[in-house]
Amino acid sequence: MHSLIRTDTSINLPIARVQVDDEEDEENKRLAEKPRLVIIGGGWGAMGVLQRLRPGDFHVTVISAETFTTFTPLLPSAAVGTVQVRSLIEPIRKIIARLRGHFVQGKAVDVDMKGRLLEVEISTDGRREHVYIPYDRLVVAVGSTSSTHGVPGLENCFQLKTISDAQAIRRRVMDNFELASLPTTTPEERKRLLSFVVCGGGPTGVETAAEIHDFCQEDIFNYYPKICREEVSIHLIQSREHILNTYSEEISKYAERKFERSNVELLTSARVSAVTPDSVIYTSRDPKTGKTEQHTIPTNFVLWSTGIAMNPFTKRLCELLPNQAHRKAVETDAYLRVKGAPKGTIYAIGDCATIETSAADHFMELVEQSDKNKDGKIDFEEFEDMVHRIKRKIPMAESHLTQVRELFQMYDSNADDSLSLNELMQLLKDLGNKITSLPATAQVASQQGKYLGSLFTRIARHRREFKAQDVLPSERDEVVSKPFRYFHLGSLAYIGNSAVFDFGKFSLMGGLGAMYAWRSVYWNEQVSARTRALLMIDWIVRGIWGRDLSRL
Amino acid sequence: MHSLIRTDTSINLPIARVQVDDEEDEENKRLAEKPRLVIIGGGWGAMGVLQRLRPGDFHVTVISAETFTTFTPLLPSAAVGTVQVRSLIEPIRKIIARLRGHFVQGKAVDVDMKGRLLEVEISTDGRREHVYIPYDRLVVAVGSTSSTHGVPGLENCFQLKTISDAQAIRRRVMDNFELASLPTTTPEERKRLLSFVVCGGGPTGVETAAEIHDFCQEDIFNYYPKICREEVSIHLIQSREHILNTYSEEISKYAERKFERSNVELLTSARVSAVTPDSVIYTSRDPKTGKTEQHTIPTNFVLWSTGIAMNPFTKRLCELLPNQAHRKAVETDAYLRVKGAPKGTIYAIGDCATIETSAADHFMELVEQSDKNKDGKIDFEEFEDMVHRIKRKIPMAESHLTQVRELFQMYDSNADDSLSLNELMQLLKDLGNKITSLPATAQVASQQGKYLGSLFTRIARHRREFKAQDVLPSERDEVVSKPFRYFHLGSLAYIGNSAVFDFGKFSLMGGLGAMYAWRSVYWNEQVSARTRALLMIDWIVRGIWGRDLSRL
């Protein structure tokens, strides 16, 4: 029976639902066997899971350090008051109320995988204690911190990952303008106070630089009579040759031209070597002499947004597992299950996770399964079987495995119409290098969350049949679902009152029209009608009365 | 010439304006002689002054620790998220932009009255320095702090005077509910976390208690499944017999009945003796035995709002002056000029100031001026003259000086048709005791501010004539204006989804209708159209989606 189900991997199981006479008894049973689903995190990933769950299927508990979920793509706007922070957040309790779930405000610090217990540190209002929360399935969606790249002095920088970050930035920006307006401030000090430096040319960095620029143009110069336009400087330091390098070249160029016109100074191919409390030190190569030169920018505001790194819980999780070697995130299989953890118990999604891309890691297993005649070589027929297996294990490899014959011949260096194990290993390694991991974006996290939510809902729907047919919980994922697949819906960024879109095949950029299109996309992505309305109101209020200059 | 003007105290001076041919020269002169007006504070008083000034009349500088002005009457609503804090504030820079004025974010710490220099401490972003700001006229509108009444442990209490206070309260309230929801919290601890204590039965205390109650009823119980209605307790401790005792008796009773029905526990005639980190200790007299008993309420939230006290700058100002003896505020004359300071240079308005009520302080002066025949006694004709002088010095005495003949006869104990100096002194002392000082409300501060703004504008308008006729700056106030008079426009308070109004002669109370009337009054009092719109939006958003439960 068991194997009968397992061969069917389609989404709709062809099993008739068991009919019971005593509905109430049924309900009681359901309650008693309701598994505990614990979700760590309150971001895009976690919300994605919650969206797709049905009430009554699981005992749901969400653990998050903040009581709300944040609409992160607009954090750069909130950092200068273009939108209000309250418009970007939605209380998690209001979201889980639908599922009659529970919420614990705390930070996950450790996990006992054998006992299926999550250790949570609660430190609210001066109280600090540890509680242990049992789980049947655990979803790790804890996000990431900023990568340091070993640069000293990053404690002098701001990050922009949370609402508190946006609030702190807004406070510092307002303080800088107030201090620069004081009669006793020296000209050098004014210059430093009015110098804004952004390190990192990704969407967050670019959008923040653009927002600061717009803020000065549209509001500051009107209300701070002592501040001149020429005194304000904005620098964007990028280690690569272009900004927005994950976007299409056109968009990258458009953004660069836009900044050039608006006096945001772009420093590309420049590397920050240190940040001090009152300056940023960076090196760049002189294009003529080829020599590396060191420069210093005096500043009182530095934003650091140069890629992601693991936060403490993700680090701890990786320590506990034998085969976790990824530097920036915890590795999962194609079903988003954390590699090395008991199957079907721990999942990881969003910025803290990365789906394995290396087929070479499965070398032995693949050879064993596909080398039917056990001759230690892989002929073409066997290779076709192997490609099928690789595609199932690593769906992201699919686009690189379309021309199987060509691939086979390319690596069959001695042309004996079969691949030796050495040749095969080389092929798998090269294949792994070709696959790019999914980017650390809200879109990926949200899709992964929805995938898991749907998967859990399907498992819950078939719980009875699984029981009857002795399908272990650890084996149910593959039965009800295909591996996770990411559908890129386009990227967008907002630069100086215009929006740029990247839909892979074509890109779009423009002025007011594009901006409104962009905004409507954002509205539809929002979690609740409430925040959608609030955002719309913010934009109208700002349109009429300008940004709020109050320092809260 | 000089005396000619001074005898005319009406508002419109009958002096023709000097005509000049060279308008531009005139303008330059005006600029050169533009006096420096410095306003300390960013509340109702300061905004009142700014509202009535004309651009170009003064070099205006506003000094305030916060960059915004606050709509204080709605702070209790902001403390639980019924309205957003951002909707209650307006950047001061946007208000002074009309006057092309300057803003300095700092705290006044000292004043050199001879050199006309104000010492301001600036402590933004870790920087702390002192600057000296010169003034020709200085308006002190620094507000007040909460009175301690010598109760120990007030560091464990919240105040509700600023936006930061409201934010801190909101954070604590949300923390309490989150902590009470934790699986590890003991029943006793839950009881303490869900116990809210308000000390002080004035409008702030009453409204805050009502807002916390509504918040629990309308939002908390829906989203915190672990919290039962019976576990939440709200206590209001009032030292007097009734709450809202500055309002009419009807209103006070209405509020008490309302609280009784809604399980807000009123503890009247109770005195707080100490506040500890986890409880409030109070004493009350047993109505039967007459014995004083001590009680303890375990709690994690205490609001302290029991009257006002001087803040450090007001204290310093009083130290510098010889005749300032008032305990709670700096005393001014009827023109709001600080008593003892060089005339026409320092004014004080709002909660930090009180207008003198004691005619006895002017005893010697009054006798000298009114005792025409110098016989050391005051006959009725002389007394009539004196009453006229008292009314001008202390306008608030007016309502007690209507029946002059009766008053005269009452104190003329030996019926010799004249008052001896002893009899007169007794009369003046009794008169002073009858006058109640103005309450420390937004309405008073705002009217005082507007009065000063109008007064300064009139002085500026007549500056040239004053110069031509050698009227000293210190003497101009009396020339252009009558003393300040307060017009009570009614008080209102919001209790449990209904509003109570007190218009002196009649009072009003009721449900939804009254509440909307109340809200429209508040909207019209708002400083800017922007905050008015934001407040309206807040009320609509809250009506549809409830309060925001996020802890920021």
Automatic annotation (TrEMBL), chains A, B:
<dbReference type="InterPro" id="IPR011992">
    <property type="entry name" value="EF-hand-dom_pair"/>
</dbReference>
<comment type="similarity">
    <text>Belongs to the NADH dehydrogenase family.</text>
</comment>
<keyword id="KW-0520">NAD</keyword>
<dbReference type="InterPro" id="IPR054585">
    <property type="entry name" value="NDH2-like_C"/>
</dbReference>
<dbReference type="InterPro" id="IPR023753">
    <property type="entry name" value="FAD/NAD-binding_dom"/>
</dbReference>
<keyword id="KW-0285">Flavoprotein</keyword>
<protein>
    <recommendedName>
        <fullName>EF-hand domain-containing protein</fullName>
    </recommendedName>
</protein>
<dbReference type="Pfam" id="PF22366">
    <property type="entry name" value="NDH2_C"/>
</dbReference>
<dbReference type="Pfam" id="PF07992">
    <property type="entry name" value="Pyr_redox_2"/>
</dbReference>
<dbReference type="InterPro" id="IPR002048">
    <property type="entry name" value="EF_hand_dom"/>
</dbReference>
<dbReference type="InterPro" id="IPR018247">
    <property type="entry name" value="EF_Hand_1_Ca_BS"/>
</dbReference>
<dbReference type="InterPro" id="IPR036188">
    <property type="entry name" value="FAD/NAD-bd_sf"/>
</dbReference>
<feature type="domain" description="EF-hand">
    <location>
        <begin position="358"/>
        <end position="393"/>
    </location>
</feature>
<dbReference type="GO" id="GO:0005743">
    <property type="term" value="C:mitochondrial inner membrane"/>
</dbReference>
<keyword id="KW-0560">Oxidoreductase</keyword>
<keyword id="KW-0274">FAD</keyword>
<keyword id="KW-0809">Transit peptide</keyword>
<dbReference type="InterPro" id="IPR045024">
    <property type="entry name" value="NDH-2"/>
</dbReference>
<dbReference type="GO" id="GO:0005509">
    <property type="term" value="F:calcium ion binding"/>
</dbReference>
<dbReference type="GO" id="GO:0003954">
    <property type="term" value="F:NADH dehydrogenase activity"/>
</dbReference>
<keyword id="KW-0106">Calcium</keyword>
<feature type="domain" description="EF-hand">
    <location>
        <begin position="399"/>
        <end position="434"/>
    </location>
</feature>
